[in-house]
Amino acid sequence: MAGTHGKAETINFDKEEVYERLNAMTQGRGPDRCIDAVGCEAHGTGGVDAVLDNVKAGVKLATDRAHVIRQAIFCCRKGGTVSVPGVYVGLIDQMPFGAAVNKGLTIKTGQTHVQRYGKSLLEKIKGGQIDPSFIITHRLPLEEAPAAYKTFRDKEDGCIKVVLKPSGQ
Question: How far apart are CA 136 and CA 2, in angstroms?
C-alpha cells in the first residue's frame, strides 16, 4: 500500500536487512528522515532484539516492542530526523540513546493532532481533493464490530480499515 498509494520505497525486513538496504539506497549516508508509524505494536522478527521484545511482551515483562524505533535510530543519517507518530504506551527496553545523541538526531514524537487537522481534512474529502477510500478493506454492520476488531487485531483477511454501519443504513 505504501508503494502503490504513497509512492514510497518499501523494504521487506523478512527478505533483506533494512540497514544494509537503506545504506545501499543512500550511497552509505542513511536516510535523512526515518518514521516509526507503528509504535508499541510492532511485531518485528528481523533481529534478536525484536524476538526478545516479543518474548518480554508475551510474559508481561515489557509493554512496548521497540524494534522499529531502534532500527530508525541506527539507520538515520547523522543530523537526520526520526519521527514517531506511532503510539508507545510504556517503557522501552534497550533504547540506543547513545547512538541518537552521537549522531545528533532530532527526534519528533506525538500522536496525530486530530483537533488541528480533522476539520480541514474532512473538507478536502468532501470536496474530492482527497480520496482515502483505498484503505477501507471491510464494510460491515455495526453488530459485527467485536468480530471485526478481532479480525483487525489479528491481522487476518487483509484487514486494514473497517467501516461499520448501523443497521438499516
Answer: 14
Question: Which residues, at least 6 apart from 138, have a Cβ–Cβ distance to it below 8 Å?
Answer: 148, 151, 157, 159, 161, 162, 163
Shared domain check, 71 and 123: no
pLDDT per residue over 90-100, tens digit each? 777 788 999 99
Per-residue pLDDT averaged across 101-111, rounded? 94
* Cα 121 to Cα 125: distance, rounded to the nearest angstrom: 6
Expressed in angstroms, the distance from the first to the final Cα of the chain is: 29
Domain boundary among 67, 93, 109: 109
Task: Please say which residue of 86, 109, 132 terminates a domain.
Answer: 109
* pTM of the predicted protein model: 0.71
Is 91:47 a contact under the CB 8 Å cutoff?
Answer: no
Total number of domains in the chain: 2
User: Cα(72)–Cα(75) distance, rounded to whole angstroms?
Assistant: 5
What residues make up the domain containing 148?
114-165
